[in-house]
């Protein structure tokens, strides 16, 4: 279940929580991202699966999500006699942070507009009276 903004602000959050909140990453996605982040070289799906002790299909699903969210870069490596395979590494931290800020600012603007719509609809009338139904007399 999604936590409310209030709940998120009241808990002790760390940077993986921001990835979860902004991109919807699950625990496995975050674990795969950290494994790629800690590696000194480009990794294959098999490398990631071996390092994490998980199935290749599980690692592939998470890597695909990370590529989709532009958190990870995919590069094709060609064999000399035909065929190829892919290797992966995280985007530059600055690029990830920039995109997270862009998404956060977009979300903030959207929620700000919705809050304004709420206030416009249910707030006070221009004459200062409240635009609320009067409860019936008991």
Automatic annotation (TrEMBL):
Q: Superkingdom, according to UniProt?
A: Archaea
Which Gene3D superfamilies does the UniProt entry name for this protein?
Winged helix-like DNA-binding domain superfamily/Winged helix DNA-binding domain
What residues does the Transcription regulator TrmB N-terminal domain cover? 19-94
Protein name as annotated: Helix-turn-helix domain-containing protein
């Amino acid at each position: 279940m999604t936590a409310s903004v209030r709940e998120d602000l009241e808990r002790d959050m760390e940077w993986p929580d921001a990835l979860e909140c902004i991109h919807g990453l699950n625990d496995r996605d975050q674990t795969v991202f950290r494994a790629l982040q800690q590696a000194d070289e480009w990794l294959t799906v098999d490398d990631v699966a071996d390092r994490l002790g998980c199935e290749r299909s599980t690692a592939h699903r998470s890597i695909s999500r990370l590529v989709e969210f532009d958190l990870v870069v995919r590069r094709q490596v060609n064999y000399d006699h035909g065929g190829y395979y892919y290797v992966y590494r995280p985007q530059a931290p600055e690029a990830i942070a920039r995109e997270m800020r862009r998404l956060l600012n977009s979300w903030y603007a959207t929620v700000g507009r919705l809050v304004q719509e709420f206030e416009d609809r249910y707030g006070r009338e221009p004459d200062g009276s409240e635009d609320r139904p009067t409860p019936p007399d008991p």
